[in-house]
Amino acid sequence: MTVDDLRARRPGGRTRLVTERLRAAALEIVAESGIDGLQYEELASRAQVGRATVYRRWPNRDDLFRDVLTHFAETTVQIENTGDIVRDLTTFLQSFAEASITPAGRAVLQILLRRTDGNDGLHHVGVELLDRRTGELQRRLDRATEAGQLPPAEAPFVNMMLIGPVQWFVLRRERPFLPEDAQAIVELVVAGLWRDHVD
Amino acid sequence: MTVDDLRARRPGGRTRLVTERLRAAALEIVAESGIDGLQYEELASRAQVGRATVYRRWPNRDDLFRDVLTHFAETTVQIENTGDIVRDLTTFLQSFAEASITPAGRAVLQILLRRTDGNDGLHHVGVELLDRRTGELQRRLDRATEAGQLPPAEAPFVNMMLIGPVQWFVLRRERPFLPEDAQAIVELVVAGLWRDHVD
Predict the structure, then answer these.
(1) Contact at CB, A113 and B116, closer than 8 angstroms
(2) Which of B168, B189, B191 sits opposite A163 (nearest CB)?
(3) What SS3 class is residue A176?
(4) Of B117-121, B144-148, B184-188, where does mean pLDDT reach its minimum?
(5) What is the DSSP letter of A117?
(6) Of the CATH numbers 1.20.120.1080, 1.10.10.60, 3.30.360.10, 2.30.30.140, which one belongs to the domain with range A3-57?
(7) Where is the signal peptide (chains A, B) (predicted)?
(8) Given an 8 Å threshold on Cβ–Cβ distance, is B36 in contact with A32?
(9) Which residue from A78, A6, A189 is spatially nearest to A197, judged by alpha carbons?
(10) pLDDT surpasses 50 at B142
């Protein structure tokens, strides 16, 4: 174990603070200049560290983005279980909308939008992030089904039907995404799922 | 009327061909390097014209993007009226999905994703494009309502509920968007709209 490793394990240690500063600076640059605008030189200068410090943490930009985005995904967008599925999905959409308009949320979209040559590890990271919560959503939907609040439902499809409209809404930036917007989306989707079941 | 104007009115004339070549080159560059990667110098060189030719047509990049994207919107994504609303909306989603994966479709998304300082004419162009078909969609929905195929429905909300999931799907690029994907989305939304009406 190196000294750096030890430092990293001590919450609030210098290494950890430097890492957080670098992550924040990386997201700022991507939000301003896009993925391809990120240069290690500028990143180091914004975070006030040497360039070697950046290269030691993340030998290439894919490593950097993977780390930054994974960290982002772990700290945002929770699916609650209050027992009321409409309420919990509404909260879920609101927290997704809030996360989407942060620099990190926009960076994820930038990654997904990049043109690829068929072998793009970074696009895969973006898709992984989108799918990260599918398992959690499936468990929440299953509980709602057990409680008689939903017919059996597939999380990937439900996720697309809920998150797609929110993403569409926030991309427009015409006005803030409100609780009633989230609720209208959730109610339509839940009603649609029931109808499928009845037919 | 100038000579250029006359040429522009003659279909297949040199001026028109140059304009089309420039539009295509602009979309290619945006797809490869993003909006901010577009320089008039490179654009002129790709389209094999002088830089002055580009500046004469579009004094600044906002003019260029407005023209290119408006032209794109006019030539794609129709809403048909066969008398069957589920079928027509399904066709609509398929043609939207096809348009989304073209360089022009990705350029629209790039524009919407750009960070703005509150006064961004280009973002407005992107939103205008998204809204361009709302009037047409409202008329198609109204006819379906008259035919008893739908309860009264607001086009902006229906558009978000239909197009949002498609956009989400195509951003992932995991597999092609199929007719059955379009149909599953349309059926859920139509069923959800009915349920709202019954309640």
Answers:
(1) no
(2) B168
(3) coil
(4) B117-121
(5) -
(6) 1.10.10.60
(7) none
(8) no
(9) A189
(10) yes
In this predicted model, what pLDDT tens digit does every residue of B45-96 receive, in sequence order? Answer: 999 999 999 999 999 888 888 888 777 766 667 789 999 999 999 999 999 8
Q: Can you say how many angstroms the Cα of residue B151 is from the centroid of all Cα atoms in its chain?
A: 27
State the smallest CA–CA distance between residue B137 and chain A in angstroms: 17
Q: Using the beta-carbon criterion (under 8 Å), do A192 and B189 form an inter-chain contact? A: yes
A158 pLDDT exceeds 90? Answer: yes
Q: Give how far B192 is from chain A: nearest CA, Å.
A: 4
Q: So what's the architecture of A73-198 in CATH?
A: Orthogonal Bundle (1.10)
